[in-house]
Design a protein that fits this description.
The protein is an alpha/beta fold and 433 residues long. The chain has 13 helices and 14 strands. It has 3 domains: 96 residues, OB fold (Dihydrolipoamide Acetyltransferase, E2P) (Beta Barrel); 145 residues, Rossmann fold (3-Layer(aba) Sandwich), CATH 3.40.50; 70 residues, no CATH class.
Amino acid sequence: MSGQTPLAGVAPRVWAVGALCRAVADALESRFNPVSVRGEITGFSRAASGHCYFSLKDAQGQVRCAMFRRAASLMDFMPRDGELVEVQGRLGVYEQRGDLQLIVESLRRAGQGALFEQFLRLKAKLESEGLFDGARKRDLPLLPVGIGIATSLGAAALHDVVTCLRRRAPHVPVILAPAAVQGSQAPGELVAALQALYRQAEAGRIDMILLVRGGGSIEDLWAFNDERLARTIAASPVPVVSGVGHETDFTIADFVADVRAPTPTAAAELAAQPLETWQATVDLMQARLRDAAQRRLDRAGQRVDRAAAHGPALFARRAAARAHRARGPAPAPRAGAARAARAGAGRRHRPQAGRRDGGAAGARRAAHRKARPAAATARPAAGAAARLCAADRAGDRPARHQRGPVQPGQPLRADLADGHVDVRVSTAAPNRP
């Protein structure tokens, strides 16, 4: 008997699951509550009901926390992942899952968590180098040639982005560069994926890149706070859209990218305008072109109507004006005619010289009068001109101007404006005083 324990021969108690959970909760209540805990927030979220859910962690472990709406309404700040806080509450067991849970009744800041402090230091460093400067941000192409996506093959974000792009812009090609988005190997794979997309951009196949991942805790998103990844994004030859996490999540990649989208789906919506929008734009431009052409036709029809109403007289006047413009200015008088006009004017102003010339001048006038009928007969044949210039012609000798008296039977040549006529003197008479 001395070798037996007090429980020897007694069957152990068999607990029901619910009863065990309640017993553990009672033990925690009696031993620990109320309790104060210091730790770093991770996975913070606020439900539509107003309740807040998150975890507190340190290097050795973590505990799930719930903060109901009444206690959450008393906070004077919005907790963020990575913040170091102190909470007061009561330990319990969430019996539906059998999880240890801390029901938080109050929460206050206790400093910055280690990860958050590291995030802030890198952010300040890159900001001082100008990587966040708005002047280096580029606008997204309005009509992208192609879109590159860097994310995990198994990520829900990939399904959301592809579905959105297929619905809004099915004509735009998409190139995927797979990479891990969580874990220690994720930063290197993301850098390699982006560099592969950069080569596609240099080949002209894409002109925009989406870097996307779903939401998570600060640890889950930590790959997007890597310095090497940030510098790779800054070196992109095409605009980069960062759609990492949810709207309340911020990473270094968000600050370096050309555009930050609150969710992966929002990144896809920013990248491609709906096809219906462009179709409506084309329809509008077509309608404006059709209206402009119709207005021009209407104006032309009105001009035709006005011309018809004025009758043939308008056309006759316009034809006469066109003919006048086509003829150009009247031709200048020929040099021979000008010399003859000057000679006639001289004779009129020198009556005494004609008298002194005596019989020779009379003979020349008689010769001209005799030659005038022949010249007049020759004008219609030659087609021309108003004035003659006589010169004698002896055989084949060149013609010369006649200065002295002429003799009956003397051959003469009458020069016209556009030809000449050969005549012969029949009678010569002196000039009359």
